[in-house]
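ok, trying the design again with the full structure, not the truncated one.
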């Protein structure tokens, strides 16, 4: 039987507007890259020069658009709000390490174990995001280098093979990412997908109370060297929270 407390949930601000904009900007750019890249891989020399030129243009524009988004996102890892910074991606605090273990056990159980509530990035997925940034940066560098080479030389270059492998690695990441986000959305019911639109995650009151202690502990880890906490006040439970009622069916 669900308690009255757990029928009420709190919408807590998590993702800032720039992070959300960069997420969807990079997602759209990657869709253009995957579509044009898959077309070039599948059809290759079977396309006419005119069609190949148009696909190449889409691939180049999409690549530079993705590169711009990636540069800003990496910069935001260091100057953005707490949930956008690199410390939120790594299991540095005891709470993050606990969530890492609990998420692993949840995955191994086939989602039969409950999903731990977490405020920003899941500590288990965070390192994968950092790996994504590194692979994406390498992929961009390879793409730029290949674009400066003559077509005949680029097609037979070892760099092209590396670029193709990078394509499949990023595609695999996106597939796994989408599948796990949907699984967390269904099992955890914290509104991961909608949070990337309006910026708020939903927690039951009991989850919010349990997480509040973790957020307070994280202040000492994410604070500035001078022990200043300016810009971290959004980690408290009173800033922008909205309480709603969850109707069970």
């Amino acid at each position: 039987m669900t308690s009255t407390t757990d029928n009420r949930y709190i919408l807590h601000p998590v993702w800032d507007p720039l992070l959300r904009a960069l997420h969807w900007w990079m997602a759209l750019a990657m869709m253009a890259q995957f579509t044009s890249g898959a077309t070039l891989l599948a059809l290759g020399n079977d396309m006419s020069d005119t069609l190949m030129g148009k696909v190449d243009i889409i691939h180049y524009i999409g690549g530079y658009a993705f590169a711009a988004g990636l540069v800003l996102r990496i910069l935001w890892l260091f100057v953005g709000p707490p949930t956008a910074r690199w410390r939120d991606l790594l299991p540095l605090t005891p709470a993050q390490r606990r969530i890492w273990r609990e998420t692993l056990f949840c995955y191994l159980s086939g989602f039969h174990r409950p999903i731990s509530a977490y405020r920003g990035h899941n500590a288990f997925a965070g390192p994968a995001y950092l790996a994504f940034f590194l692979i994406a940066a390498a992929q961009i560098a390879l793409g730029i280098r290949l674009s400066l080479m003559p077509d005949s030389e680029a097609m037979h270059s070892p760099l092209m093979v590396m670029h193709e492998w990078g394509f499949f690695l990023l595609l695999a990441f996106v597939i796994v990412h989408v599948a796990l986000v949907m699984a967390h959305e269904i099992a955890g019911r914290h509104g991961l997908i909608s949070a990337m639109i309006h910026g708020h995650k939903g927690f039951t009151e009991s989850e919010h109370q349990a997480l509040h202690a973790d957020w307070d502990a994280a202040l000492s880890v994410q604070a500035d060297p001078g022990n200043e906490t300016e810009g971290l006040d959004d980690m408290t439970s009173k800033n922008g929270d909205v309480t709603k009622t969850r109707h069970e069916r």
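Keeping the full-length input from now on. The chain has nine helices and three strands.
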